[in-house]
Every structure is written in structure tokens, then in C-alpha cells.
Amino acid sequence: MRHKAWMSTIAYYVGLAALLTLPLHAGWLAWVPVILAIQLVGGLTISVGYHRLFCHGAYRASPFWHRLFAGLGVFFMYGSPLQWAVTHAAHHKHSDTDLDPHNKGARALLTKSYKNVPLELWRARRLLRTEKRLHQLVDGWYVPLWFGLFFTMLLISPTFVVMAYLPALGVAHLVGGLHNALSHDSNGARDLWFMELLAPAGGEWLHGTHHKKPGRYDLRTRWYHIDPGATVINWIRK
Ligand SMILES: [Zn+2]
Ligand SMILES: [Zn+2]
């Protein structure tokens, strides 16, 4: 397994550049709803797929959902599910210490690379118990898979790539950076439920509850909590 966080960093910077220059293109406003819709799918891919299914095994889903979330993870350049699960498991074990691989504060908004990530496959043991061949394939072929997808999209519609795909990558990785920047403070992990309204992340803003009970698939503990990921999981779990 190789570490491919560099691809996420490129996606973030290129995506942000595409987002900031979007208003220079005629008719850009019509693409804003498309970008927002793609971002909602990105938040659910991380929260429902990568986080709660792949890393924590908080619910069971058919191979179709494993394939779909792994494919969407390549589309969004989130890194392979194996890489993500290894990094996130290390975050749980070492959160709020110097060994925590997640960047915090402003640094989380500057880079997508992770600190001190021990690339130990055993950390992804839950993931490797399910759909092992699929996840090893996506991990080994992550870079060519992304290039194949990207050039296919370019051939079909360069306009979609420039006006929707790249700006949506920028938004998706910006929301991820914001989440890392804000979800832990000096007291540890915290719930910022209202952030789901400002920067939709599939329910991930209930991060304090998640650290207390990582195996739970529904992160809501108050009636006003917002967890769209839990609603999707109720549809797809078996
Ligand atoms: Zn955390
Ligand atoms: Zn977690």
C-alpha cells in the first residue's frame, strides 16, 4: 500500500483554483446547483461509505454499496478506502496527541497530507474482512483508475469538468479541511451540529458523539441534530 495523499492535495488546490475562477466563465451561476449536488454526494461518500462503513464497520451493506462508495472515493480523490481507513483508525487511537495524523487549525486548511501516518494494514482489518479483493484492487490501481475516469469525463464533456467537477472537488476538500480544523479543540472532539447547515458533510459534524461511540451508525443524540448519513444508512443497510 502506498500513500497517495499527494493526489488529494492536488485535487484540493486545482479544485479551489477552478472554484475561485468559476465566475470568470459566462453562465457560471447555472452550474452552482450542480456543484452543490456533487458536494452533497461527496459528503455522503466520506461519511456513509469511507467513515462509517469502511473504517468502523458500523453497519453492513451489500457489495454494490462497497463498489459504489469506492468508485465515488476515486472520483472525489479522497484516497483509497484502505488508505483512508488506516489513517482514520490512527486518528482515533492517537487523537489530541502529537501522533494524531490529522492536521488541526489553519494547517488543516492548507494541506491534505497527513502527519506520522503509520501505514499498517492491520488498522484496516474491519475493511479487509469485507470485500477484500475490491479494496486491494482499488488501492493498488487508485492512480490509473482516477486518470481513466478523468480522461473519460474530459472526452465526454470538458465543460462539465471545468464548470462542475473541478470546483466541486475544491468544495468537497475544503469542507474536509474545515472539519479537521474545527472538530477538535483543546477539550477534544466536539459536536458542531449547526455546521451541517453551513458546510454539509453527511452528518460528520457530530464528531464528539462519534468519538464516544465510534461503532454507532446514527450520530444523533438530540432531536435537533442533523445526520443525513444516518438516513441514507437506514435505506441501504442489510
Ligand atoms: Zn476526531
Ligand atoms: Zn471515526
Describe this structure in words.
The chain has 12 helices and 2 strands, in the order αααααααααββααα. It has 238 residues and is an all-alpha fold. The protein has one domain. It has a two-stranded antiparallel sheet with strand order 1-2. α8 crosses α9. The longest helix has 25 residues. The model has no long low-confidence stretch (mean pLDDT 92). Bound molecules: zinc ion (2 copies). The site of one zinc ion has 7 residues, from α2 and α4.
Number of domains: 1
Oligomer: single chain
N-to-C order of helices and strands: HHHHHHHHHEEHHH
CA-CA gap between termini: 30 Å
Q: Please report which band the strand proportion falls in: under 5%, 5-15%, 15-25%, 25-35%, 35-45% or over 45%.
A: under 5%
Number of separate helices: 12
Query: Which small-molecule ligands are present, each listed once?
Result: zinc ion
Name the poorly predicted regions: none
Features:
238 residues; mainly alpha; two-stranded antiparallel ribbon; 12 helices; 2% strand; globular; binds zinc ion
Produce the secondary structure layout.
Layout (H helix, E strand, L loop, with lengths): L4 H16 L11 H24 L7 H13 L5 H14 L10 H6 L14 H5 L2 H9 L1 H15 L1 H25 L1 E2 L2 E2 L5 H4 L8 H6 L15 H9 L2
Antiparallel strand pairs: 1-2
Helix pairs in contact: 1-9, 2-3, 2-4, 2-9, 8-9
The site of one zinc ion has 7 residues, from helix 11.
